[in-house]
Amino acid sequence: MKKIIPFGALTIAAVLALLAPSTEVTTVAESSIDTGDTAWLLMSAALVLLMTPGLAFFYGGMVRKKNVISTMLQSFVCMGLITVIWVVFGFSLAFGEDIGGIIGNPSTFYMMKGMLGNDVWPALPTIPIALFAMFQLKFAVITPALITGAFAERIKFNSYLIFITLFVIVIYAPLAHATWHPDGILAKMGVLDFAGGTVVHMSAGWAALASALYLGKRKEQEHTPSRISYVILGTGLLWFGWFGFNAGSAGGANALAASAFATTTTASAAAAMAWIFFDILKGKKPSAMGACIGAVVGLVAITPAAGFVTIPHSLIIGVVAAVISNLLVIWRTKKGIDDTLDVFPCHGVGGMVGMLLTSVFAHSSVNSVVTTNGLFFGETGLFTAHLIALVGASAFAFFGALLLLKITDLLAPLRVSEEAEVMGLDISQHDEEL
């Protein structure tokens, strides 16, 4: 019976698509759609999608050889599963008509209703709404993929699919709505999240910590990366794709996109060097792994701030985030928490550092959306709002993930058997190997 359910659910979605073909065309009298902005967002959406295969290489190179395919597939499969959910009702949950400031009406854009014609999303009036929906889809795709590094080498693939389905519906969509919908509770508080520090990285980071604690330690604790060359390749793809992630979030080919582009690469470069130099300071040799992890931490930390801070301040954000995440990796190791690929110290903590530093360095001269300047400029309102949001979003993501893990475990046990773990997930879960 359990084998029927996944294909049955996809079949139901296909039948629903037959019943709701969404052929209505919306025509707006005075459309402001711009071809240049549309072209840039099309490219940005493609860049963000490329980040998920990049993440697959980044994570895949870090695990042991017997788990490479399984780990990479956990990222890759999100491009399929999350897309289906998003098209049917996920986009509506995140950006549909507001319900209480925490979730969207699932019927607003059900089966991509209203995507034909020249309608737009109000906050991005120069691109078609269908493009906005697809751009946002790529963020929803990579978020659950980020979590996989925490429970790598010990989770059942089928159970994982259940968990990420629940995660996108119950945690990601409400956070996206609360933060990015104009009527969302965090948006109304004045919380700034340019490209996903709270929505993407904090939610994934806290879910990763919950997953590591819930699933417990691997039977074999040694950690020998299988392909450091994969890690380098993955980092390059992530850095490249991140320009779509951050500069694309400007909503068009404009000066703000150029500023976000510059802050993104500056923070990542500074964080990569800070990680290397901090390792040397601790008596370690400079490593390719360290440089790659540092670069990604910088990208994570600048994500919420990219379109709100100046280029010099992005350099500070990269350095601070790298040092703090590096120290948290040491803390995590001492505590014996088996977050396999340090998702919480790097993505969760990096996202939180970036969120707080956004409220320190944000300035209206960079982006007119900033109505209260950051703490560095003598104003406290934005910093206070971000502190409150940080606590609330962290608690929601962490305890929500724990609940979803428990529900998933009841539906389908999460952990593979000890025998399957020792054999390796490539063989035990997929009958494939390098």
Chart the SSEs and their pairings.
Layout: H1 4-19, E1 25-26, H2 35-60, H3 68-76, H4 78-95, E2 98-99, E3 103-104, E4 116-117, E5 120-121, E6 124-128, H5 129-147, H6 157-180, H7 185-189, H8 197-215, H9 228-246, H10 255-281, H11 288-302, H12 311-335, H13 343-361, H14 381-411, H15 418-423, H16 425-430
Parallel strand pairs: 1-4
Antiparallel strand pairs: 2-3, 5-6
Helix pairs in contact: 2-3, 2-5, 2-9, 4-5, 4-6, 5-6, 5-8, 6-8, 6-14, 8-13, 8-14, 9-10, 9-11, 10-11, 10-12, 11-12, 11-13, 12-13, 13-14
What is the alpha-carbon Rg in Å? 21 Å
Number of helices: 16
- Side by side, the strands of the main sheet go 1-4
Q: For the terminal residues, how far apart are their CA atoms?
A: 32 Å
**Biggest sheet features:** 2 strands, parallel
Structural class: mainly alpha
Helix content: 55-70%
- The total count of strands amounts to 6
Oligomeric state of this protein: single chain
Percentage beta strand = under 5%
Average pLDDT confidence is 96
Helix/strand order? HEHHHEEEEEHHHHHHHHHHHH
Keywords: Ammonia transport, Membrane, Transmembrane, Transmembrane helix, Transport
Domain Ammonium transporter AmtB-like: 39-432
Membrane topology: Multi-pass membrane protein
Main location: membrane
Model description:
This protein has helices at 4-19, 35-60, 68-76, 78-95, 129-147, 157-180, 185-189, 197-215, 228-246, 255-281, 288-302, 311-335, 343-361, 381-411, 418-423, 425-430; strands spanning 25-26, 98-99, 103-104, 116-117, 120-121, 124-128. With 434 residues, it is mostly helical. Strands 1-4 form a two-stranded parallel ribbon. The chain has a two-stranded antiparallel sheet with strand order 2-3. Strand 5 and strand 6 form a beta hairpin. The radius of gyration is 21 Å and the shape is globular. It starts with a helix and ends with a helix. The mean pLDDT is 96. InterPro entries: Ammonium/urea_transptr (IPR029020), Ammonium_transpt (IPR001905), Ammonium_transpt_CS (IPR018047), NH4_transpt_AmtB-like_dom (IPR024041).
